[in-house]
Amino acid sequence: MNIALQSMAIEVPHVEGHPNREAFRGVLTLVDVPSDRSPAGARGHRVVLTRSAAEAAIPSLLGMGLDYAPSLDRHDTQRKVGVITRAEIVGRDLALGGYLFAKDFPEIVRAIRESRRTLRTSAGELGMSYEIADARIADMRSKIWTLTHVTFTGAAILRRDKAAYQNTWIELA
Question: Side-chain half-sphere of 15: how many Cα atoms within 13 Å?
Answer without folding.
Answer: 7
